[in-house]
Specification:
Elements lengths: L3 H22 L6 E2 L2 H9 L4 E4 L3 H7 L1 E2 L2 E3 L7 H8 L8 E4 L4 H12 L5 E3 L20 E2 L2
Parallel strand pairs: 1-6, 2-4, 2-5, 5-6
Antiparallel strand pairs: 3-7
């Protein structure tokens, strides 16, 4: 049986390899970003379409930001649903929000690759991240239905 030292070195190496490879698998979104209050204000003013891409159980647990459309990113027709949401206008500004900004950045890249030209990330998400405290902690309005 390998010694603890060998196992520790293997484990450390695996973590380092994962950390180094993560940006290669999921590159950062290089487009526009908004903080949660600005996303809320712009959605309320009709300047952007705000889309909460989390799972239904997440929506149920925390509610959704007021003004956000709920579109589960796991839907097989996710891109087609967003195209309908923007009435086929791929130049319409769409802001994506998830729990902590990881999925929204990944999906922002995917949508940009699929012809959307005005994708905006809300990197602090609903629960907060290094980008900010999040929609909920900022006390922004929620819808629970």
């Amino acid at each position: 049986m390998p010694s603890r030292r060998v196992l520790l070195m293997l484990g450390t190496g695996a973590v380092a390899a994962t950390a180094i490879g993560y940006p290669l698998v999921y590159p950062a979104f290089g487009g526009q970003a908004l903080d949660a209050p600005t996303a809320f204000q712009r959605a309320e003013a009709g300047e952007i379409i705000l889309v909460d891409i989390r799972r239904p159980d997440e929506w149920q647990a925390t509610g959704t930001g007021r003004g956000a459309h709920r579109v589960d990113l796991r839907r097989p027709d996710f891109i087609e649903t967003l195209i309908k949401l923007v009435d086929g206008d791929l130049n319409r500004p769409v802001a994506l929000i998830c729990a902590r900004g990881v999925r929204s950045a990944r999906i922002a890249n995917l949508l940009t690759e699929n012809g959307f030209t005005m994708i905006i990330d809300v990197p602090e998400g609903m629960l907060g991240s290094s980008a900010g405290p999040g929609w909920i902690a900022r006390g922004l309005p929620l819808v629970n239905s």
